[in-house]
């Protein structure tokens, strides 16, 4: 009898083979079920409570981040949701549901004993065909006129917003989002769109500022005497503290007499006044500083009809600099005209319960600020997430101006294409590609289920229409029927669908390629080793 060879240290758990793979697929199914009902215009929202902070959302990526998933195989779905969010900004729920449905349809083949490598090869082949078809089907939009291009962007923004909490105001917000993105320069930097939230008021009270707006900062006595409106002001952007420091905070000074102490105090005052004089002489009327501006400085500026704000957040200061020009200075000795910013209008205005500093008519105005109004704080946060998705979609559409019909239309068409292709080939691959074709139908089916429609009837109608060559027929949520979603202006950038298909394929293939899990006792289950990804459920 051969002696037993101990390879792994005591306490190591190892599970492998088919049961391991099935268990990983089941874990992914559980994650998909958590976000399944959030898809589409009639999707439900999730209330997730973490450390007593409640978040209400139906954004796939947000829910996946907040769900504390520990199963290593299921974590791949979290990763694809994050990648979809980072790459295209929308379609996060779609990508998770697609990956889960691929696995669900292929689970049967794993149980039957088909080798995972054959399944993976077929899934990759099916995805390649699907992506090629999306590229062929996508409609290039002519940018002949500005009005037409703008209408296209608004339609894409409206489609992105129709599945969000703010869907009732999608017409209002889609115009605002398109305006915001078109105010940016050619690179369309996301951080140049500021979103500020103020509780109170109605959603329609939200406004877009073509420039910079930020909350009034902490201010000292004397602030009330400063003017709150300027036309064509010069703006000094500083990174300097303009207040008296108590000596004991900074240094230890030993003095022999009161006169010496007085000299130290006088020196500090004279340093501060010298700084203030230099700022005044520069001709700046609005002074913004990243560091505090004290009461002496506030009063000094008020006496000279100058406006000041200290402790301005870094991102707001940078956006002001980009919009109004100038530079953020860390010394007052070089305040020339070239380093001062300019705008045509500055005012401090009351919006709801907050006061806002607003700069408009900026010469380099490649930035804008959306000020959101609304009731509950959670509602405002979800509105911000919804607008982020819409902004990302509009940016993508400007860069890739090819669109496809949404509402499950493109998925039904790809399902038909793959089903037709599967009939032309022999062997196991035929069944596997047909399974992927069936999996793609999950999107229109889930749209129906979430709206309370009879999915079987609607899917049968869709299959018939697509078989007759009507490419763009999808679910019409409003009429509880099917309709031509391209004519109905339910449009999505094709890049969203391509990214969703490839990410879902990668995730499914990754889960299918794992056949063993070795769990190290020391790691407590966090660090999967060897050839696998986590213990069975």
Radius of gyration: 30 Å
What is the end-to-end distance?
35 Å
Give average pLDDT, whole number. Answer: 83
Low-confidence stretches: 525-537
By helix and strand content, what is the structural category? alpha+beta
CA-based shape: elongated
Which sheet architecture does the biggest sheet show? 5 strands, mixed
Helix count from the secondary structure assignment: 17
Helix content: 40-55%
- Count of extended strands: 22
Proportion of residues in β-strands: 15-25%
Q: What do you see in this structure?
A:
- This protein has 537 residues and is α+β, with helices and mostly antiparallel strands.
- The chain has helices spanning 18-35, 60-66, 75-87, 92-112, 116-137, 146-161, 170-182, 247-250, 258-281, 295-303, 314-324, 377-399, 409-422, 428-440, 442-451, 455-467, 494-512, and strands at residues 13-16, 46-50, 53-57, 139-140, 193-199, 207-209, 211-215, 229-231, 234-238, 286-289, 307-309, 328-329, 341-342, 345-351, 354-360, 368-374, 402-405, 473-476, 481-484, 491-493, 516-519, 528-529.
- Strands 9, 10, 11, 12 and 13 form a 5-stranded mixed sheet that branches. It has a 4-stranded antiparallel sheet with strand order 7-15-14-8. Strands 1-21-22 form a 3-stranded antiparallel sheet, with helices on one face.
- Strand 21 (516-519) and strand 22 (528-529) form a beta hairpin.
- Helix 15 (442-451) packs antiparallel against helix 16 (455-467).
- The two termini are 35 Å apart.
- The relative contact order is 0.18.
């Amino acid at each position: 009898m051969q002696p037993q060879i101990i390879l792994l240290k005591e306490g190591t758990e190892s599970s492998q083979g088919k049961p391991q793979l099935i268990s990983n697929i089941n874990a992914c199914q559980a994650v998909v079920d958590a976000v399944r009902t959030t898809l589409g215009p009639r999707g439900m929202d999730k209330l997730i409570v973490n450390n007593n902070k409640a978040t209400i959302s139906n954004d796939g990526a947000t829910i996946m981040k907040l769900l504390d998933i520990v199963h290593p195989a299921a974590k791949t779905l979290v990763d694809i949701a994050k990648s979809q969010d980072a790459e295209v900004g929308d379609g996060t729920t779609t990508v998770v549901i697609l990956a889960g449905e691929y696995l669900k349809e292929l689970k049967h083949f794993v149980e039957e004993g088909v080798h995972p490598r054959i399944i993976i090869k077929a899934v990759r082949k099916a995805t390649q065909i699907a992506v090629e078809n999306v590229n062929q089907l996508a409609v290039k939009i002519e940018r002949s006129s500005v009005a037409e291009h703008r209408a296209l962007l608004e339609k894409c923004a409206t489609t992105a917003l129709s599945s969000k909490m703010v869907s009732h105001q999608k017409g209002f917000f889609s115009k605002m989002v398109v305006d915001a993105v078109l105010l940016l320069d050619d690179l369309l930097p996301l951080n140049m769109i500021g979103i500020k939230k103020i509780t109170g008021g109605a959603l329609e009270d939200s406004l877009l500022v073509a420039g910079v707006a930020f909350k009034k900062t902490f201010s000292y006595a004397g602030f009330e005497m400063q003017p709150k409106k300027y036309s064509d002001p010069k703006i000094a952007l500083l990174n300097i503290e303009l207040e008296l420091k108590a000596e004991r905070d900074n240094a230890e000074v030993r003095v022999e007499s009161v006169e010496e102490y007085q000299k130290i105090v006088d020196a500090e005052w004279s340093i501060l006044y010298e700084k203030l004089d230099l700022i005044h002489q520069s001709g700046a009327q609005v002074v913004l500083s990243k560091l505090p501006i004290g009461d002496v400085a506030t009063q000094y500026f008020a006496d000279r009809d100058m406006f000041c704000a200290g402790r301005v957040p870094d991102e707001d200061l940078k956006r002001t600099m980009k919009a109004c020009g100038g530079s953020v200075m860390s010394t007052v000795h070089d305040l020339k005209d070239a380093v001062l910013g300019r705008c045509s209008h500055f005012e401090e205005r009351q919006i709801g319960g907050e006061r806002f500093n607003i700069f408009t008519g900026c010469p380099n105005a490649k930035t804008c600020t959306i000020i959101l109004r609304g009731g509950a704080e959670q509602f405002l946060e979800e509105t911000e997430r919804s607008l982020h998705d819409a902004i990302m979609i509009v940016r993508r559409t400007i860069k890739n101006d090819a669109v496809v019909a949404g509402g499950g239309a493109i998925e039904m068409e790809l399902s038909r294409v793959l089903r037709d292709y599967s009939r032309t080939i022999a062997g196991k691959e035929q069944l596997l590609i047909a399974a992927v074709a069936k999996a793609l139908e999950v999107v229109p089916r889930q749209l129906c289920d979430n709206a309370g429609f009879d999915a079987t009837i609607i899917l049968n109608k869709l299959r018939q229409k697509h078989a007759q060559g009507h490419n763009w027929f999808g679910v019409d949520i409003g009429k509880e029927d099917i309709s031509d979603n391209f004519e109905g202006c339910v449009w999505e950038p094709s890049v969203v669908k391509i990214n969703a298909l490839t990410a879902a394929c990668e995730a499914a293939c990754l889960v299918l390629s794992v056949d063993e899990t070795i769990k190290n006792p020391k790691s407590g289950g966090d660090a999967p080793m060897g050839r696998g990804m986590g213990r069975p459920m």
